[in-house]
Amino acid sequence: MFVRFMRLFTLAALWLSACASATATPTSIEATRPDGQEVVLWHSYAGPLRDALLSQIDAFNAANPWHIIVVPEYHGNSDQLKHDLNIAVTTNSAPTLAILAPADMWALGATAVKLDPYVENTRYGLTADDLADIYPAMLDMTRDPQKHSLLSFPLGGEGVVLVYNSDRLAAQDHPTAPDSWPLFKEVCEATTVDTTNDGQPDVFGFGFNPRADFATAWLNSRGGSIISADGLKTTFNSDEGIRTLTTLQETAASGCFYRSTDADIIREFARGKVAMIFALTTQLPEIFDAVEARGGFRWSVSPVPYGRREPTLTISGPAWALLKSTPPKQLAAWLFIRWFSETPQTVRWSELTGLLPLRRSAGQGLTNVFTRNPGFKVAFDLLSVAQAQPDIPEWGNIAELLVHAVSAAVDGTDPAQVLNDAARSADALLNQ
Question: Residue 96 class from Cβ within 10 Å (0-12 exposed, 13-18 middle, 19+ buried)?
Fold first, then answer.
């Protein structure tokens, strides 16, 4: 009798537990209905990028089961977009979604919605398989280094690679790209030539174009870093940073550097003025067209020189900024972001824009891209060990300090001095 009673009691308890689970209060996200929402998206994309974005939006609008409509609005270049957003935030007229550089998110303050609750939601979020498929560095591009929360969500990335004239290197008995910084110096010097016998070089080994993303990649390749893991202190004046700038200084002193600018560097490479440049992966199609227009030569892509370390890829890229509105609109915007991050859309976005994909699984759909653009495959294969450019509000100013330090070292100033001076100024910005 007692055993029978206990069985009945257990069954009753299980029934009550099941009822309680069935009637448990859903989270605020799960209780929200996104159906029929209109999501206004502000962006600064023009030309082919705009066409690519509109194509993706049209596909989502036509097929999503919630009948969500994403409405894109062009707001000029990135500076104009940021200006318009700042005004909209102060007047409570901001859109629900915008495409920004991750560091620009910080200016939105409390208007920006952290995405972790959406990513982690059991009904509408990303699965464990999704998160394992997305490259960690992609998410790191949009993560607060102190709180580790997602301030935005990446659309894709662009990585820093070394582009080199294979014919020029081979002519100097260097059949492959320099994979270490000492070898980079050797190749730079060997491919600098006085073709007119007037005592001055006419073609150079390296097109020197100091940029923050390049400098970050150079330091990362030597095992250095820019910012501490918690985002509170600069680290670029470490021993690795000093060695990096010392190598650049010594290489430049040999006369093999040719100074150039963003606007000219690809043209200088295409016309054979320089044998090596650093470039972003999104620039590879432009380099291909420029070289072909000049009659062509063999060129290729390799990782930033890494020596005895594993090769690295430093990435940056645009991000989705979710802004406060109503819960239904925010959820609708997140569902669009989630759809955009799925493998088929990731593949298509890479095909249309040249951005590296978010997901490992995208590689299966990018075979044709890899065939047309072998340099893209070089970068894709490095995504599993990629490192993200820092996502901090002071990045713009710190980037300027870093570029100034690199330029000063190449001009002959003591690398330790310029890096320490830059680090003091940067730490003051981080702790103001």
Answer: buried
